Amino acid sequence: MLETSVHVEHLTKRFGETLALDNISFEVGKGELFGFIGPDGAGKTTLFRILTTLLLADSGTCTVVNFDVVREYRKIRNISGYMPGKFSLYQDLTVEENLSFFATIFGTTIHENYDMVKDIYQQIEPFKNRKAGKLSGGMKQKLALSCAMIHKPEVLFLDEPTTGVDAVSRLEFWEMLKRLKAAGITILVSTPYMEEASLCDRVALMQAGRIMTISTPQEVIRNYPLSLLSVKSGDIYHLLAELRKYPGVHSVYAFGQSAHVAFRDRNIEKETLAGFLIKNNHKSVGISPVEATIEDCFMELMTTPALNGE
């Protein structure tokens, strides 16, 4: 059984009338890459701020490497790395000055822990004399990760680290996370991008301060209970409206230029559905079975009675 790095039990946090975290519980194993997947407002940032000792919960308990986030916050800060969603390094300092500053805070130097950040920092080292505010999004991302890693943390908290960067930089970033995980570092990462869920060992799907499910990405998809079709026509907006009228439809959501249509009945006849759409003046109709994505699973979980308190 995996040794536990992060343990959260019945955590609740309110901001006035807003319930940011609603009695959530979970564990993250040592060396695990654990993802929190959900839209803005799901509670991901609030959770990370509590776990990194920057915010106090209203109730519940949390430990990081067996240290309590309230009583032993200083110890947690020494063994954790935190990369907030908004770039928060010093814009008027150079790349090298930022990294040196963060190393000094933790009583170390760039030279002493260079091996820890070498794979990441080498990519931006040619620009070490450039001010952080002049870096591209992807380079800022690498600098922020280097600063979070320079003191050799045991646990790394990354709050929406790939938001606002290009697709290539996002891919490179996840490759870096795989290497850090291979080095034995526990990583908790939050993201609004559903497709990034597949890159984690396990994921917690979050919405409105609640955790809807925790499982491996493969298990989340395997548990999808519906029959799913991808449907296309020349008019996506008209298509969505017509599909919602079709008998037996459970849900309809737009996916790019097509619609994902879910049925509880596993024996839906594509020919009958195509005839219905053609009768309603749709042209270039295309219908094919499709495997559920994490996003399909997320949308289905949002409609479950457990989430809505029914």
Descriptive terms for the model:
310 residues, alpha/beta, Rossmann fold, Alpha-Beta Plaits, 2 domains, six-stranded mixed sheet
Q: In words, what does this structure look like?
A:
- The protein has two domains: 4-215, P-loop containing nucleotide triphosphate hydrolases (Rossmann fold), CATH 3.40.50.300; 225-291, 2-Layer Sandwich (Alpha-Beta Plaits), CATH 3.30.70.100.
- Helix content is 32%, strand content 28%.
- The protein is built from eleven helices and 14 strands.
- It has helices at 44-51, 73-79, 95-105, 114-121, 137-149, 167-182, 217-222, 236-243, 270-279, 294-302, 305-308, and strands at residues 4-15, 18-29, 33-37, 59-64, 67-68, 80-83, 155-159, 186-191, 202-207, 210-215, 227-232, 249-255, 258-263, 286-289.
- Strands 6-7-8-3-9-10 form a six-stranded mixed β-sheet, with helices on both faces. The protein has a four-stranded antiparallel β-sheet with strand order 2-1-4-5, covered by helices on one side.
- It starts with a strand and ends with a helix.
- The relative contact order is 0.13.
- Mean pLDDT is 91; it is low at 305-310.
